[in-house]
Amino acid sequence: MHCISLPSSHHPLPSPPKTTFKLTCHVVPRMSLDNNNNSRSNGFNIINNISKLLWGPSLPPGLLISTVRTVWTSTWQIMMSQLAPSDPSGGYTRPPSKFRLSHQNPTASTTKLHLYVGLPCPWAHRTLIVRAIKGLEEAVPVSVAAPGLDGSWEFKDIPDKDKSRDKDILVPSRDKVNGCQNLKEVYRLRKGGYNGRATVPLLWDVDKKEVVCNESYDIIEFFNSGLNGLAQNPGLDLSPVELKGKIEEWNRAIYPNVNNGVYRCGFAQSQEAYDVAVNGLFSTLDRIDDHLGGSRYLCGDRLTLADICLFTTLIRFDLVYNVLFKCTKKKLLEFTNLHAYMRDIYQIPKVAATCNFPVIMDGYYQILFPLNPGSIRPVMPIGCEHKFLSRPHNRESMSSVGKSVQYVL
């Protein structure tokens, strides 16, 4: 999966194209209000003065409220249809990835590669984690895009806002290999050009100037087993043969109901679609929580790709999805096992450095205008702070190998 630009992890808009919304992680990048505070303030003052002249301190008349509500609802439906394609019931339908990786390609592991990601995107986040714990940082350099004012993925240096964190934490950057201003320009460099959705993650062939893959699961499978000759931790196998069946079984439950399930809640365009999505989300989380009461990871004692895919949604759950996407039945902190399980993975060396929480929050609250018109970012929940996530999780006692599990440093 991938993240999109608004509207579309992880295609040009129909006319009129003047305002575009870019997004999916499998992102979701940004629909934003004008950031010119003076202009916005002046506009508000004019409207406020007119309203005082018309009806003084009283509320506006019912007809005006009804008219504004109708106009806003119609506008919201138009914006949501571009941001999040839906089925006839109003349920969100994620577009498929355009460029898939062929594992039979004999040159894939010898190609000079570059990875493009966006930090808000959970689909791109998968690739960063596997790249890190496999020790592929030198073999596969990365450029980190950030949502621009028009919703496209842009390249720019943004200072880290969280000074209490590890100095190695990832932050938005310039395009380190092609020098492009935005991700769409990178896609257009490929032979024949490209006018489709400019999504992250994007694995790029540096020499051929070609897209290798923009499907997140293909990329993490490739990073796990296709580059062991270049990895600093080639012995770590996140998809061992004996566990592939269990991994696929968990993925079949987690992807539609949790990974994509939170988006189906947030992007639902009818009450019926939301109810279906939210019930599927929390019934699946309850099932996983029960399972983790007797198992350190999803497939037993070993960390697998299924855990990585679940983690990137869980780490955003209380931070973003619980509030912005209306996943409000429970916070992750209220589950018996899920929060400790998430902390267990977060504390694996190098994983925390891939989690830039202020940038993640900005990428949702200040980007998804139809869901948050004021672009106000709420305060970070205590349970999502680095200090809290670094508390002991005590889950090593559930593993027969305990702390003997080794990860690359």
Notes on the protein architecture:
Helix 3 (122-133) runs parallel beside helix 5, helix 6 (244-259) runs antiparallel to helix 8 and helix 6 (244-259) runs parallel beside helix 9. 37% of the residues lie in helices and 5% in strands. The two termini are 28 Å apart. It has a five-stranded mixed beta sheet. The protein is mainly α. The relative contact order is 0.15. InterPro entries: Glutathione-S-Trfase_C-like, Glutathione-S-Trfase_C_sf, Glutathione_S-Trfase, Glutathione_S-Trfase_N, GST_Omega-like_C, GST_Omega/GSH, Thioredoxin-like_sf. Residues 213-382 form the GST C-terminal domain. One of its GO terms (molecular function) is glutathione transferase activity. This is Glutathionyl-hydroquinone reductase YqjG.
Can you tag this structure with a few keywords?
Glutathione_S-Trfase_N, globular, GST_Omega/GSH, 409 residues, disordered C terminus, single chain, 37% helix, Glutathionyl-hydroquinone reductase YqjG, Glutathione_S-Trfase, mainly alpha
- Order of strands side by side in the largest beta sheet? 3-2-1-4-5
According to DSSP, the number of beta strands is: 5
**Element-by-element helix/strand order:** HHEHEEHEEHHHHHHHHH
Global Rg: 22 Å
Instruction: Characterize the main sheet.
Output: 5 strands, mixed
Helix content: 25-40%
Given the C-alpha coordinates, what overall shape results?
Answer: globular
Counting H and I runs of at least 4 residues, what is the number of helices? Answer: 13
